[in-house]
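Appendix B, record 7
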Amino acid sequence: MDMQGTDLAKSLRDWDAQTGSKLRGALLLPLTAVWAILASLAIAILATLFPRWFRRRGWCLVRLWGRVPLFWYGVRLEVSGAERLRAPGAKLVIFNHVSVLDLFVLAAVSPTNAVVIYKQEFRRVPGIGHALRGLGCIPVDRSNSERARESLAAAADLVRATGAAVMMAPEGTRSRKGGLQEFKLGAFHLAQQTGAPLVPLIMRGIEQVSPMRSLLVRSGRVAVDFLAPIDPSHWTPEEVRARANEVRGVFLEYLEPTRTD
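Structure tokens (predicted):
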């Protein structure tokens, strides 16, 4: 990368979330927990009992589930490239995983009838686990490689059959040290097998608004950038690792790498 490119990358990474105090977040935490559980249960019931209606008209409730807490906390989303989600056909939306606030941000900007690939532990979370099952999202057992492959195979079948927008975090889990971790290969094998374009979704400012190891959320700005789709139709299985590294390089233009100390 030349000097001009280095300066550009630095400017993209330097995002000022303009955060407020912790007091508001502390006062709203119990209300947010109640909202997350009860609203999730309502979504789960509606999606299970009225699946056709929900696919046509109910997805606004998922976005509302995310937007209400963000409004309470005073978190402003500055979204760019959202039109890329409205393009016809299947797509794999891959995002950086920062904190629990990701759930609300992702819900607020999710495309209609999105399918989330999530870690199996979320199935035990009251309300949210029910909603994920009701929406037909796909759990991944990270402790069992065979079951993880079965989950990805199910996602591939879903993409081919329905043209779904699949959302997943290529890091696998959120960083404990901050910054972007190495990518696991599941999303990239899925892209290579289905030919569905990868749409990078990059979130900046969440680590300032909702710091690691904290449940408190401050007011502030979060940037949500949907980048140009990446065409995997010419990839071969042998080069998936190299392609994953290339895509991670795109993310690193916006994000710092995880700390190694």
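Remarks on this record: Residues 17-252 form a domain with the Glycerol-3-phosphate (1)-acyltransferase fold (CATH 3.40.1130). The longest strand covers residues 198-204.
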